[in-house]
Amino acid sequence: MPRLVxxxxxxxxxxxRFGQDATNIDRYIALDGYAAxxxxxxxxxxxxxxxxxxxxxxxxxxxxxxxxxxxxxxWSFVPKTSAKxxxxxxxxxxxxxxxxxxxxxxxxxxxxxxxxxxxxxxxxGAKMGFIYLRGEYRYLLNIMERAVAxxxxxxxxxxxxxxxGIDFDIITQTGAGAYEVGEESALMESLxxxxxxxxxxxxxxxxxxxxxxxxxxNNAETIANVPxxxxxxxxxxxxxxxxxxxxxxxxxxxxxVERPGVYELPMGYPLRKAIYEVAGGIRGGKELKAVVPGxxxxxxxxxxxIDIGLDFxxxxxxxxxxxxxxxxxxxxxxxxxxxxxxxxxFYQHESCGWCIPCxxxxxxxxxxxxRVYEGGGAQKDIDTVQYIAENMMGRTFCPFGDAAAMPxxxxxxxxxxxxxxxxxxxxxxxxxxxxxxxLVEIL
Amino acid sequence: MSTIANSIFSPELAxxxxxxxxxxxxxxxxxxxxxxxxxxxxxxxxxxxxxxxxQRLDLTDLDVRSVLSYYSMLRTKPAGKFNVQVCTNIxxxxxxxxxILDHCKRRLGIENKQTTADGQFSLEEVECIGDxxxxxxxxxxxxxxxxxxxxxxxxxxxxYAAKDGK
Lengths: 443, 166
Description:
The complex is a heterodimer of chains A (about 450) and B (about 170).
Chain A: H1 25-30, H2 35-41, H3 48-59, H4 71-76, E1 87-92, H5 101-108, H6 110-124, E2 128-133, H7 138-153, E3 169-174, H8 184-191, E4 215-219, H9 220-232, H10 234-239, E5 248-255, E6 261-266, E7 269-270, H11 271-278, E8 288-292, E9 301-302, E10 309-310, H12 312-317, E11 326-331, H13 336-350, H14 356-373, H15 380-392, H16 400-414, H17 416-424
Parallel strand pairs in A: 1-2, 1-4, 2-3, 5-11
Antiparallel strand pairs in A: 5-6, 7-10, 8-9, 8-11
Helix pairs in contact in A: 2-6, 2-9, 3-6, 6-9, 13-14, 13-16, 14-15, 14-16, 15-16
Chain B: H1 11-23, H2 31-42, H3 47-56, H4 61-68, E1 82-87, H5 90-94, H6 97-108, E2 121-126, E3 138-140, E4 143-145, H7 150-165
Parallel strand pairs in B: 1-2
Antiparallel strand pairs in B: 1-3, 3-4
Helix pairs in contact in B: 3-4
């Protein structure tokens, strides 16, 4: 499990209870736990939903799963009245390569996720919430189930929560291994006991979601922020970050750094400092080659592009994404050809196969890059890969197609010379995969 | 008493499944967890598991099979008692994940997706398991092991092998 790390530059909101035995409900309560939900209820039944949503809007909190959609706005899309029950869905299917922040969050502060889900339910008038964890996180599911049971035992969940007259239930759910299920509509399918294939939108989940009812679905980190925001105030949270990028976020720094770990940094924190100071610089004193700034689907940044602030808008402006906050650092020894192949191998394996551009595109990019990697490539293969990736973009029902195409495009555009040299035989980097590593996947 | 006569599961699991089928707004929502928990007990999703789960959730066998084939953790053949799952995705790859995978192959004398002759260990190369900041990482069944070196892998595998003797 990722160990707890710290750095003086951290700004602590979410990590406030980390390392303090907050899985224990009494400890959680002693550390201001379940105070935020009571503060919301104290606004009175009439004012409460609007107060919560206004506070969330003022906080500038944007979705921590990757898309960065403003949370308060997302919640405001849920219709006030609905013939079908409304639901809150917490996405803990953390599967984006390079991302392990929710892992730490579930382990250290499970009640914050419960409390956040309750508040989300109060905001939209939902009486039931689901917390969905990826199947590999069984020990975290056990922690979460224990926390939910403790909250029920105290009467915090169930009937008439905190004397509000409102009922709220939480069900925990396990996945069983599928990256695609992290996509919101695929997750709802999975929770309904089906294959994790995405739904066509519109309608969006806020209108037609789980079991056909209006649903808000948020990443676990997004939800865990909610109680903190209600306690400190939306404006105070917003001020910690940059314009339109409120607060802090959990950045998981991994790869070739001296001190990998999940660090809580303010939005807009300089990427260069995150790598060289917070994470202790490049391991073994080597040179930096590239950075994947927000999980595998985010286009790569070259070493000369890291003077940038870590927020959604600055990364988008640079042609990449902040994504899930998983910063993967590559030193000079890495073969970009091999790294690009490893990423597309992942997407080819995980494509649900519904949309042809994604299913076929990932497969053909993998085949072409495999040929290049194994020494049989031609210069035109680089254009072929780029052509396939460009034709996947925007042509699928869910963002998976883009998520596979974007990093591929980043590699071939920003490191084209390295691909050319690799094909010529003047190899760059030190490959670590060999032919025995099942490049041609047996499905 | 389980609601299913002659359940193939232990009384504890059968009771758990009885409850699981009642907690959701729609019964079918129990399908994925049920298959995984059944696999935990039986070792894999057997024909008998498929039939009983289908019966419990008022589904056809085909409904169950269709869902089963989608999820990578669900298997229709037994794995080893200790299923060693080595991550080779990017963060692990950068810190020696492939070296760890190769070491496991040599050490266990099996290839990816194979099981040792005594049925004790199976080996699987897996995609990101969410332990990137402690890479390279692997799971043995559901337990995480990370910041791995080949020496540490030897220790871990020895411990599991010894556990089996008891």
